[in-house]
Amino acid sequence: MKNGQRPQRDLRERTFKFARQVIKLFVALDRGILAQTLGRQMLRAGTSVGANYREADQARSKAEFVAKIGDCLKEADETAYWLELIAAEALGTPADVASARDEAGQLVAIFTTIKRRAEGGN
After folding, report:
1. What does the pLDDT read at residue 4?
2. What is the domain partition of the chain in residue ranges?
3. Average pLDDT across the chain, whole number
């Protein structure tokens, strides 16, 4: 995959927006130990999706690209897990948590497709 193609630019922007969404959700959580513990995990995973995607976009080989896209997938899925826990414990604003969960799920689907195609599967 070459730099400058529209889908990569769009995904760079989308993962950046997702990181900002996760940051805002974390900042809005109460300061209780449970909210902060789950929130920090969500924050770490959610902000690393875009960072890993940028590394994938600069990959020097197909193998490196596949590995970094795998990291994106792993972190997006982990973020979805923390968001699920946050929702189950009613720790955030339901609409904000639902929106972030939806975006995390969409990113998981996107990175799953990219990884399969890059590996030569369908």
Report:
1. 43
2. 6-117
3. 93
Q: What are residue 4's phi and psi, to 5 degrees?
A: 90, -10
Give the pLDDT band (50/70/90) at residue 51: very high
Which residues contact residue 3 at a Cβ distance below 8 angstroms, ignoring those fewer than 6 apart? 57, 58
Per-residue model confidence as pLDDT tens digits over 1-16: 444 445 567 999 999 9
Question: How does DSSP classify residue 61?
Answer: S
- Chain centroid to Cα 31, Å, comes to 23
One-letter identity of residue 66: V
> How many whole angstroms separate alpha carbon 12 and alpha carbon 9?
5
Where residue 32 falls (left for φ over 0; alpha for ψ -120 to 50; beta otherwise) is beta
Topology (CATH) of 6-117: de novo design (two linked rop proteins) (1.20.1440)
The angle at the Cα of 105, spanning 10 to 35, to the nearest 5 degrees, equals: 110
